[in-house]
Design a protein that fits this description.
With about 200 residues, the protein is of the alpha+beta class. Helices cover about 60% and strands about 20% of the residues.
Length: about 200
């Protein structure tokens, strides 16, 4: 159809018809735009938005894990440092005889006379082994107090427990002091193996 003929026919139409044709054309073009452009792009935008949200969640989770890892690593370093410090306070098995000799030397330096110094059976706990030593010494109250003070200042942990005192003689300034000195050492795998071996021998 020639273009001139089409426009001539349109010009002959009433105004209301022209408006309806214009509106219909706009609606048709809008429909084509929506169908061919907007809807596909809208779906793509929705998909991309979901993907962005998912990626943001993963990034946030990764950040949280990274912070937790840094915190864990810092705590691990601190625990290892505390463990090394604890090792300095608790002697290992080879150091026990030297530690016990040091205790008796401190007693001698405090002018005490040892009447009994007897290591007792070790007591095993979850993470450490308790080493009790029964002691009986003779000396003045001041000498005993000096001895206990020096033991308390040792680098290794040694606790003085179950203290009892009584005069050597009536009106004597010398006292007979009985007590237990308790030190500790870390329980190691070799201790577990030794204990297991002893239990097997007992069963036989």
């Amino acid at each position: 159809m020639p273009t001139g003929t089409f426009f001539e026919k349109v010009e002959k139409l009433k105004m209301i018809h022209r408006i309806l044709i214009l509106v219909g054309t706009i609606v048709l073009l809008a429909g084509i735009f929506v169908a061919l452009v907007y809807i596909p792009q809208s779906k793509e935008i929705t998909r991309l938005n979901k993907e962005i949200v998912s990626l943001e969640k993963k990034i946030n989770q990764a950040k949280i894990k990274a912070r937790a890892l840094k915190k864990f690593e810092a705590e691990q370093v601190e625990v290892e440092a505390q463990f090394r410090e604890a090792l300095k306070l608790l002697p290992n098995k080879r150091e026990i005889p030297t530690l016990l000799r040091s205790i008796t030397q401190l007693g001698s330096d405090a002018n005490l006379e040892f009447r009994l110094f007897s290591p007792n059976k070790e007591k095993t706990h979850d993470f450490y082994i308790e080493i009790p030593v029964s002691m009986e010494v003779s000396g003045t109250y001041h000498d005993v107090a000096t001895f206990f003070d020096k033991v308390g200042r040792m680098k290794r942990i040694v606790n003085i427990l179950d203290i009892s005192m009584k005069p050597v003689k009536v009106r004597s300034t010398n006292l007979t002091t009985k007590c237990n000195a308790v030190t500790y050492r870390f329980k190691r795998k070799v201790d577990e193996k030794t204990k297991t071996g002893k239990n097997k021998k007992k069963k036989k």
